[in-house]
Amino acid sequence: MNGTKKVVELVGVTKVYPGDVAALRGVDLVIGAGDLVAIVGPSGSGKSTLLHMIGTLDRPTSGTVRIAGYEVGDLTDRELSALRARHLGFVFQQFHLAPGTSALDNVADGLLYSGTPPKARRERAAAALERVGLGHRLGHRPHQMSGGEQQRVAVARAVAGEPPLLLADEPTGNLDSAAGAEVLAVLRDLNASGTTIALITHDAEIAAWAPRRVGVRDGRIVTDERTETAAATPATTAAKPAAKPVAGPGAETVEAAR
Ligand SMILES: Nc1ncnc2c1ncn2[C@@H]1O[C@H](COP(=O)(O)OP(=O)(O)OP(=O)(O)O)[C@@H](O)[C@H]1O
Ligand SMILES: [Mg+2]
Prior knowledge:
Layout (H helix, E strand, L loop, with lengths): L5 E12 L3 E12 L3 E5 L6 H8 L7 E6 L2 E2 L5 H11 E4 L11 H7 L8 H14 L15 H13 L5 E5 L7 H16 L3 E5 L3 H6 L2 E6 L2 E7 L32
Parallel strand pairs: 3-8, 3-9, 6-7, 7-8
Antiparallel strand pairs: 1-2, 1-4, 4-5, 9-10
The structure holds adenosine-5'-triphosphate (ATP) and magnesium ion.
Magnesium ion binds next to helix 1.
């Protein structure tokens, strides 16, 4: 089911922070088009650092990062910004919405660097908010919305430019379980319509919900499991019977080809 196209490819990635903190100690990871990957592991294990590498928010100390086929190390800062604008969407635990600014403008402003003209920015923003179930809240400012609604605005902002890859660091970490479930439902719908998603979570239930789980410990990937059954939201466990045994192309082979 997961295409063989590599959206993300990390080969031998290390990250040493000042103070000699080895946050990543040699990570090989392939994420294929259409994947929905939960990144799990203890606090301090390197999950956010890993997501920053994938998101090209920081450069590795050594190793190779390829996003959508582009080798990040070969790109100038300007080219990197363009790559991020075109290919990547980000959602964080804190919503990072501009206070006093409507949901519509918060989302539209996320398209400022995409080269989209103002009118089209607002149209796309409205469509993205519609998509996350907030078509009736376009004019609301962050303080007039619930936490779950604010996070859905943040998701709308992340996906308004229709990036093929969405990265989320604890997107439900500040939400109660009902609001969290709504955000997860939005992510699931996005994934169903083709967006590749990697999300960090501490929540075992959310991890179990994801069709693929990558476990990180001490800066290394220690597990990489896939569930081939159709995923249900944690709340709705109308689980279908297990899909065909050993289904689909084994896209999980993480190898540094050659
Ligand atoms: N900017 C930085 N400078 C120095 N050390 C850092 C920096 N950022 C992270 N670290 C260290 O790198 C290690 C990995 O941090 P990271 O934020 O990736 O962990 P994490 O798995 O996301 O943890 P959490 O679940 O608590 O968010 C930690 O030991 C952390 O203290
Ligand atoms: Mg973290």
